[in-house]
Specification:
The structure is a single chain. By secondary structure, the chain is mainly beta. The protein has one domain: TolB, C-terminal domain (Neuraminidase). The protein is 13% helix and 35% strand. The protein has two helices and 21 strands. Strands 2, 3, 4, 5 and 6 form a five-stranded antiparallel beta sheet that branches. Strands 1-21-20-19 form a four-stranded antiparallel beta sheet. Strands 7-8-9-10 form a four-stranded antiparallel beta sheet, with no helix packed on it. The longest helix has 36 residues. The protein is globular. The chain starts with a helix and ends in a 17-residue tail after the last helix.
Length: 316
């Protein structure tokens, strides 16, 4: 009798182990399957920029700029500007290991004529964006809150930052907002105070706008007309690193790998901290596509080359 009980317990233990192995295998398969479709299934770039999702996101004959992914990398939002059409935000979602066709978001439901420069908050609860009726006239920061399977009505952000013409909003892991003041052509930020932004302050950098802050605020990407050659009129991307005392280093060019003789701009950083996205356009037709490159290109420029990790940073 005792031997039968022992055999029974051993059998139960073996079944339990097999079940665990099967569950682990299924989990790994699910993760492998999901990872295969991240970033629209595109092969990740190294230190040489690659055009992103040609024919799917980057489509000839129009401008694409300012791309933003959700923290889980299963949603993507970006700006589209096509000749004789309003500037709009388009989006696509990963569902059942397949990305949906990119369509217009229309957050304001016609209350504003144009929407652009989306940013998905790192806690995945909001999408910030710029809305306007007329260029260089009424650009303000708006947002929508995430609901169960949709978005709330669009709300204009209640903050002094909207007292001027502003755009290109993005957010650090602690909730601080960074943006460009159009009137002053300078970078500003507003500290997060329990979900409100009552005070604004200039980001004291030597030059640059359309800035994008890293999650931990250890570096800031900006773009500006080329500063290395006065004869060149094209725009390039630069990085400013924050020093121990809180000051910013002089803007450093991302180098010839990123900055060509064409116009580069609208930089952004993916939520996992792995890639930099930017636009590239020429002077002939002024049409732009989205490019991406590994953030290792930034780390190689960091003073003393001190590597820091900005992956999976989420503020509360």
């Amino acid at each position: 009798m005792r031997n039968n009980i022992i055999r029974f317990l051993v059998l139960i233990f073996i079944i339990f182990l097999n079940a665990c192995k099967t569950e682990k295998s299924n989990t790994n398969d699910d993760n492998s399957s999901t990872n295969e479709f991240l970033y629209l299934g595109q092969k990740p770039p190294s230190l040489i920029p690659e055009i992103f999702a040609p024919g799917v996101i980057s489509i000839d004959g129009r401008n694409e700029s300012n791309i933003s992914f959700s923290p889980e990398l299963d949603e993507v939002y970006f700006t589209v500007n096509k000749k004789d059409e309003e500037i709009s935000i388009f989006f696509s979602k990963l569902k059942n290991n397949k990305w949906t066709p990119a369509i217009r978001a229309n957050f304001t439901k016609g209350r504003k004529k144009e929407e652009l420069y989306p940013f998905v908050s790192l806690n995945n609860k909001r999408i910030y964006f710029t809305a306007l009726d007329s260029i260089f006239s009424d650009e303000k920061i708006w947002y929508v809150n995430r609901l169960d399977d949709s978005w709330s009505d669009a709300i204009q952000l209640d903050s002094p930052l909207n007292d001027d013409l502003v755009f290109y909003i993005n957010q650090a892991e602690n909730g601080d907002l960074y943006y460009t003041n159009i009137s002053k052509r300078k970078m500003y930020y507003a500290q997060n105070k329990n979900g409100s932004f009552p005070k604004i302050q200039e980001v004291e950098i030597e030059f640059g706008h359309h800035g994008f802050i890293s999650p931990s605020q250890d570096y800031l990407l900006v773009y500006s007309q080329n500063k290395e050659n006065e004869k060149r009129k094209d725009f390039d991307i630069y990085v400013c690193f924050k020093e121990k005392e809180g000051k910013w280093t002089k803007p450093i060019s991302l180098g010839n790998e990123v900055n060509s003789n064409l116009n580069e701009g609208c930089p952004s950083i993916t939520p996992d901290g792995k890639y930099v996205f930017f636009t590239r356009s020429d002077d002939k037709d002024e049409l732009s596509n989205l490019y991406w490159v590994s953030t290792e290109i930034i780390e190689k420029l960091r003073p003393n080359n001190k590597m820091t990790t900005t992956t999976n940073m989420v503020y509360k």
